[in-house]
Amino acid sequence: MAYGQVVIGPPGSGKTTYCDGMSQFLKLIGRKVAVINLDPANDALPYECAVNIEDLIKLSDVMAEHSLGPNGGLVYCMDYLEKNIDWLQSKLEPLVKDHYLLFDFPGQVELFFLHSNAKKVIMKLIKKLDLRLTAVHLVDAHLCSDPGKYVSALLLSLSTMLHLELPHINVLSKIDLIESYGKLAFNLDFYTDVQDLSFLHYHLDQDPRSSKYRKLTKELCEVIEDYSLVNFTTLDIQDKESVGNLVKLIDKSNGYIFAGIEGSAVEFSKIAAGPLDWDYYRYPFLMGASLDVCLLFLSF
Q: Which domain of life is it from (predicted)?
C-alpha cells in the first residue's frame, strides 16, 4: 500500500511549484518522495521527477503529427496514457514499496470534469498498485477578488470533486498574493468556508458584464450551496506552517496517519478525531532541529 497526492488545478494555479515545494517539505520530515510528471506540456521542471510522461509521449509531437491544438493534444496524450497504463505501472512498481507519490497532472480543467481519461488512469493505478490518493485541487487565491471568478472557481471545484470521486481538498494557493488584484469584499473566512453566497449578488450587480446574468448566477450559487461540499484551505508554499497544516489534512484524508498502526477500531477512531499535531513528533530528528533552519534549503 502506498500513499500520495493527485495535484490538479487550472493553468497558473501553481501545481508545478507546489510539487517542488511539497516534495522538499516531505523529505525534510522524513519521507521518501517520488514526483511523477504526467503533464506532457511541462518541459521546464524545477524538480527531479522519478517518472516523466515525456518518455512515453510528447505534446509537441502529438500536435505536429495529428494537427491538433494544445487542448486537443492533451486529451490525446491522456487517452494514449490510459491505453498504455502498463508502462506507467511498471515505472511505479519499484516506487510504491517505500515512496510517497506526487502526481503532477496537466492544467487543462476539462480533463477532470468533462473527459474520463484522466480519471480512468487514476482509478486503474489505485486498483493495480493499491494506492491511497488524495486529490489536491489548487485554485489561485486572487480569484477571490472578483466575485464572478470566485463563483466559477466554486463550480469548477464542485464539478471536479463529483467527477473524480477521490478524497479531495480544495486549496487557495498563493494566499500571500490574494489581494494583488484588488481588495477583498469580505473577510477571508467567507471565501474559505463558502458562506452565504447571496452576499455576492450585490457585488456581481456592480459589474455590467455579470449583472445581466444575475438570474443564472443566483441559480448557480444555489446549486453550490445545495451540494454543500466545497470549502477551501489556504496555502503559501513558502511558509512552513501553511504547508505543514495542509500536509496534516491530506494525511487524514488518505489515511496516511493510520499507516503502520495496529489496533482496534476504537484506537483508530481516537487518532482520527485527535488534534492535527501528530506529524512532527513522528520524526525525532526534527525535535532537536529548527524547521526554520531546515527550510532555508528550500528554493522556489
A: Eukaryota
Give the span between the Cα atoms of 105 and 141, in whole angstroms.
Answer: 20
User: What's the grid cell of residue 203?
Assistant: 457585488
Q: Concatenate the DSSP letters of all residues of 170-219 into one string.
A: EEEE-GGGTTTTS--SS-HHHHHTT--GGGHHHHHHTSHHHHTTHHHHHH
* Beta strands in the chain, from DSSP E residues, in sequence order: 2-8, 33-37, 51-52, 100-104, 131-140, 168-173, 233-234
Question: For cell 499535531, what's the residue?
Answer: 277
Average pLDDT rounded to a whole number, residues 207-218? 78
**Contact (Cβ atoms closer than 8 angstroms) between residue 68 and residue 77:** no
Name the pLDDT band for 204 (thresholds 50, 70, 90): confident
pLDDT for 182 equals 80
Query: Average model confidence (pLDDT) for the chain?
Result: 85
Cα–Cα distance for residue pair 260/32, rounded to 1 Å: 16
Task: Please tell me which residue, 228 or 209, carries the higher pLDDT value.
Answer: 228
Distances (CA, A) of 255 to 30, 136, 243, 248: 17, 15, 18, 10
Q: Reduced to 3 states, what is the DSSP secondary structure of residue 279?
A: helix
Query: Helix axis angle, 85-92 relative to 117-129, nearest 10°?
Result: 40
What sign does the dihedral 82-87-89-95 (CA atoms) show? negative
d(CA 49, CA 25): 15
**Span 2-297 CATH architecture:** 3-Layer(aba) Sandwich (3.40)
pLDDT band of 244, cuts 50, 70, 90: very high
**Cα→Cα distances 201→48, 185, 211, 232, 285, Å:** 46, 12, 9, 21, 52
Question: Tens of pLDDT along 26-73?
Answer: 999 999 999 999 999 887 888 999 999 999 999 999 999 999 999 999
Alpha-carbon span 9 to 157, nearest angstrom = 9
